[in-house]
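Dear support,

I submitted the protein below through the web form. The confirmation email said the job was done, but the results page showed an empty box. After a refresh the structure appeared. I'm attaching both so you can tell me whether what I see now is the final result or a partial one.
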Amino acid sequence: MKTAGNPDCLFCKIASGEIPSESVYSDELVYAFKDIDPKAPVHILVIPKEHIVSAAEISPENSKVISRIFEVIAHLSKELGLDRGFRVVTNCGGEGGQTVYHLHFHLMAGRPMKWPPG
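What the results page shows now:
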């Protein structure tokens, strides 16, 4: 499922400004904002403005936005001085821990990350 926006989607509402968030980056394809329940000192969600349900929905038609998301993550890591390292995570589906069904990447840093993560 892919639409320009899903009126019932929390992250579509955040990206459109309908629901307030603490924005750290925005362009025509990507929106990034601080997580309201951070799991690390730096915890930013990076989302496509286009509604894509999960990583399972990435296709040749929408993959341009995925590369743009990772360009934004690289930009933010430099801007935030994350030179000691960071983690990027996406959850896919219920068993993968996805709770909001809009593709999003967690950019986390500011503490040592453990493995395995969950």
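Response: this is the final, complete result; the empty box was a page-load delay. Strands lie at 2-3, 23-26, 30-34, 42-48, 51-52, 87-89, 105-109.
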